[in-house]
Amino acid sequence: MALSDRLLAAWYAGHPALTVLQPLEWLYRRVVRRKRARFLAGEGEIYQPPVPLVVVGNITVGGTGKTPLILWLIEHCQRSGLRVGVVSRGYGARPPHLPWRVEAEQAAEVAGDEPLLIVQRSGAPLMIDPDRSRAVQALLASEPLDLILSDDGMQHYRMARDLELVLIDAARGLGNRRCLPAGPLREPIERLQSVDAVLYNGAPADRDDGFAFQLKPTALVNLLTGERRSLDHFSPGQAMHAVAGIGNPQRFFDTLETLHWQPVPHAFADHAEYNVQALTFMPPLPLVMTEKDAVKCRGFAATDWWYLAVDAVPSAAFVAWFDTQLMRLLPDRLLP
């Protein structure tokens, strides 16, 4: 297990040895609190977009289901007739220049795995740049939009925002509730009191402190042909190699088990790069991976490689709440 994986496991298990990192945690807290205080005071250069901007992020290290929820938000807004775009840091991307407009035919090495997935699934215009304010300006210069979604960017305080949606893994929660490097929190836990909504990935129902949403498996898609098959394509008890290079690989393996399959788990680092050798396992079995991994593997996929398509399903209460926010932010575009 890599050092980063061991540290992540310790954060969420509450390992007592992490107390030695408390002095560094104190310094980290001081820096992030000062940074946010400057933002709230309007100090420094803060870009205010001319259209509403919604940040979809988290305060923890590790996967929380941002990409599926962003896809749901895009589709929901598009059904209302809104022109919606996305900005992303583009972690792991190596474009020729920045900002960079992601197109569906680009390679994941250029565009980044998550941005490429979003564009291929939704067709929404998407710009990547670690400077998200610059990405927003470039995106608006390229075409007219009514609303922008920021894939993460909670801590990007040079960009003003109209809504902040924070995602939390319902099973893992906030770990030991400490900040980096003693815990998984990017900001102190009291930051949740200032956001507009908290969504719990995997929660069975809405909670007093937030909304629930589920990730629902919908189909198996063949990497080589693009053919979609129903979830009964594999019989109960089917053994398969399961590949996940995401923030929380165990969640993917658990999902396969809930479908009554027998996955042989192969966890990789988040945003891992793949080749045929890395994905050649024994004994020979069908291989099932996440859609995020699939965008990097289509060029060398075998005939029995599949990805599991999943859709975010937020609670009815969240849908109603979000529609109310859209009416508030875009009254001229969404007349009753």
UniProtKB/TrEMBL annotation:
<comment type="function">
    <text>Transfers the gamma-phosphate of ATP to the 4'-position of a tetraacyldisaccharide 1-phosphate intermediate (termed DS-1-P) to form tetraacyldisaccharide 1,4'-bis-phosphate (lipid IVA).</text>
</comment>
<keyword id="KW-0444">Lipid biosynthesis</keyword>
<dbReference type="GO" id="GO:0009029">
    <property type="term" value="F:lipid-A 4'-kinase activity"/>
</dbReference>
<dbReference type="GO" id="GO:0005886">
    <property type="term" value="C:plasma membrane"/>
</dbReference>
<protein>
    <recommendedName>
        <fullName>Tetraacyldisaccharide 4'-kinase</fullName>
        <ecNumber>2.7.1.130</ecNumber>
    </recommendedName>
</protein>
<keyword id="KW-0808">Transferase</keyword>
<dbReference type="GO" id="GO:0009245">
    <property type="term" value="P:lipid A biosynthetic process"/>
</dbReference>
<dbReference type="InterPro" id="IPR003758">
    <property type="entry name" value="LpxK"/>
</dbReference>
<feature type="binding site">
    <location>
        <begin position="60"/>
        <end position="67"/>
    </location>
    <ligand>
        <name>ATP</name>
    </ligand>
</feature>
<dbReference type="GO" id="GO:0005524">
    <property type="term" value="F:ATP binding"/>
</dbReference>
<keyword id="KW-0443">Lipid metabolism</keyword>
<keyword id="KW-0547">Nucleotide-binding</keyword>
<comment type="similarity">
    <text>Belongs to the LpxK family.</text>
</comment>
<keyword id="KW-0067">ATP-binding</keyword>
<dbReference type="InterPro" id="IPR027417">
    <property type="entry name" value="P-loop_NTPase"/>
</dbReference>
<comment type="pathway">
    <text>Glycolipid biosynthesis; lipid IV(A) biosynthesis; lipid IV(A) from (3R)-3-hydroxytetradecanoyl-[acyl-carrier-protein] and UDP-N-acetyl-alpha-D-glucosamine: step 6/6.</text>
</comment>
<dbReference type="GO" id="GO:0009244">
    <property type="term" value="P:lipopolysaccharide core region biosynthetic process"/>
</dbReference>
<keyword id="KW-0418">Kinase</keyword>
<keyword id="KW-0441">Lipid A biosynthesis</keyword>
<dbReference type="Pfam" id="PF02606">
    <property type="entry name" value="LpxK"/>
</dbReference>
